[in-house]
Design goal:
The N terminus is likely disordered. The chain is mostly helical. The protein folds into two domains: 329 residues, no CATH class; 138 residues, no CATH class. It has a five-stranded mixed beta sheet.
């Protein structure tokens, strides 16, 4: 009876980790649901205050018109289809009838609000699954205690918490990247061809969410060559025969991964191929956009690597970044080959986003699960040593989690309070008479108070479908950065957002600086919203940190 008792104790020890994981998932859920309704469309603005959430609904608009072609290929189609499925399940009645209510003039605004919330809920679910995947991945390599630490790191990461409130592709892509890395680790450990298939599928799904996710397939390739010799693949004996060489077997596995990835991509983004004449336009636009970038942003922040490191360190993941770098070094020194695919992917991904001329912190999302796992490595080393070192290890975990919770808590509280655009709109309406003119740099978009109900920006507002929703509160004049237009348009009020002027001022752009000089000479500032509501952030952060908290300045003619 002794062996069964030993086995029972082992099972009990493993089961003892279920409650802590459940508690971490509960904390993560609260952090991601609190403030989830931030900036949703309402009676004052047609689109949400996140500029990209509208695109996540493209699949739904096509489905409402009886087509599965999303007619939008800047990203893959998987996330669009998942959002569409969620909306059908939760609000299917909007798509019923000869003319779906979602396509009527009265019903479309309500549909936009409900569908945007559905897209955000998909992101929350993807975030929670990613945290579980990090636990699973960490446990495979480092053990149960380290898995809890990695799980806690990701659960509280401010950047992950913030973007889990958005109905966009980045959090979901990070899920599939993490799962691909998990199966890559299993390839090294188990020498199982089924893991190769699953790694390929997850790489294909990552690419189907957002094309650059295809990069993670390199981790699966590396895992094949880091695994034991071909003779150690017993499950392949029937497929390949014992006469196969190690190189031939590994090449077969590489092809298996590629085939699995291609199948997963094509099944979930079929119109990228079926409607290639449409897809190539959007794909080539994205490639050109990444190459050309946004000139003022590049001038303001010349180093892409420094941009991402700063945003990761504060307030993205805090001390976890330093622990992760230490963990990567330790893994190499200790020759922990199971971690090599994670380290290789992290380096490759960081290079990819750093050389791109378009700079947003959301590009870092797929790094966060890897950082959470690697950050647990040095802590694990410390807690296995004597009492003093063990105390240092636990102290590092407590401090790292404390910093993350400080920022994440502030994020959630700020998302749940009144949006700064509401206060800015009150200032605009109180300062400007009904028959006055309001000057804007560009067409009403997410970054300014909703002076027009249709706040979709230049491109969306120009489409026939949305023109009927134009409803200006005052006469609007679009001046651009033309100082002469500012002087000659007889404007009473001018509204500016830091999304339009910050990079130009930092880079010293002469046109923007000249416009601001003329503005300050003839107008008096009557109101200004605050901006990023986080303590202990020592530098300017990426602009996509500021979607919920733009600094808005209101000027009135003297």
């Amino acid at each position: 009876m002794a062996p069964p008792a030993d086995n029972a104790r082992k099972v009990d020890r493993r089961g003892g980790y279920v409650s802590p994981v459940a508690c971490l998932i509960l904390v993560a859920t609260i952090l991601r649901l609190y403030g989830l309704r931030w900036g949703l469309p309402d009676s004052t603005h047609l689109f949400s205050y996140h500029p990209d959430e509208y695109h996540s609904l493209r699949g739904l608009f096509s489905l409402a018109q009886g087509s599965l072609n999303p007619h939008f290929f800047n990203y893959g189609s998987l996330y669009l289809y998942v959002v569409a499925a969620a909306a059908v399940i939760s609000h299917g009645s909007l798509l019923l009838g000869p003319v779906p209510s979602a396509l009527t003039f009265e019903g479309l605004p309500e549909a936009l609000s409900l569908w945007t919330l559905d897209a955000r809920i998909v992101s929350v679910l993807a975030a929670l699954l990613t945290i579980l995947a990090v636990y699973w991945l960490s446990r495979q390599v480092l053990g149960n205690s380290a898995a809890l630490i990695g799980c806690a790191f990701l659960a509280t990461m401010p950047l992950h918490v913030l973007h889990s409130h958005y109905g966009t592709v980045d959090v979901t892509q990070a899920l599939f990247v993490t799962l691909c890395l998990l199966f890559s680790v299993r390839i090294i450990q188990r020498c199982n061809w089924q893991d190769c298939v699953w790694a390929g599928i997850m790489a294909g799904l990552a690419a189907s969410t957002k094309y650059n996710g295809a990069v993670v397939i390199v981790a699966a390739f590396a895992a094949i060559f880091l695994s034991r010799s071909a003779g150690g693949w017993p499950s392949l004996a029937r497929l390949c025969g014992e006469h196969r060489t190690a190189v031939a077997t590994r090449m077969l596995l590489v092809l298996l991964i590629v085939a699995s990835a291609a199948a997963a991509f094509l099944l979930t983004s079929p119109y990228t191929v079926l409607a290639w004449h449409e897809a190539k336009r959007d794909i080539f636009f994205e490639i050109q956009h990444m190459r050309a970038g946004e000139p003022l942003a590049v001038l303001a922040e010349p180093s892409g690597l420094l941009f991402h490191l700063k945003n990761l360190l504060s307030p993205g993941v805090g001390l976890v970044l330093i622990l992760a770098i230490m963990g990567a070094v330790l893994a190499v020194v200790q020759r922990r080959r199971e971690l090599y695919p994670l380290i290789g992917f992290a380096v490759l991904w960081m290079m990819l986003i750093s050389v791109a001329k378009v700079r947003y912190t959301r590009y870092e999302m797929s790094l966060l699960p890897v950082l959470a796992v690697l950050a647990a490595v040095p802590v694990t080393v410390l807690v296995k040593k004597r009492r003093l070192w063990r105390g240092l290890g636990y102290s590092l975990v407590i401090v790292a989690l404390g910093i993350n919770l400080l920022w994440s808590g502030q994020i959630c509280l700020a998302l749940a309070t009144e949006d700064p655009r509401v206060g800015a709109l009150s200032i605009v309406l109180n300062e400007s008479p009904p028959d006055s003119k309001i000057g804007l740099i560009q067409q009403p978009w997410f970054d300014i108070p909703p002076v027009d109900y249709c706040n979709g920006g230049k491109v969306i507002r120009s489409l026939p479908l949305w023109r009927e929703y134009h409803r200006s509160r005052r006469e609007l004049v679009i001046t651009g950065w033309d100082a002469a237009a500012l002087n000659n348009s007889n404007l009473h009020t001018v509204v500016l957002s830091e999304f339009t002027f910050r990079d130009g001022v930092r880079a010293g752009d002469p046109q923007i600086v000249g416009f601001m000089t003329q503005l300050l000479a003839n107008y008096e500032r009557r109101g200004c919203t605050v901006g990023l509501p986080l303590w202990a952030v020592p530098w300017d952060v990426g602009l996509d940190w500021l979607y919920p908290w733009p600094e808005i300045q209101v000027y009135v003619h003297q």
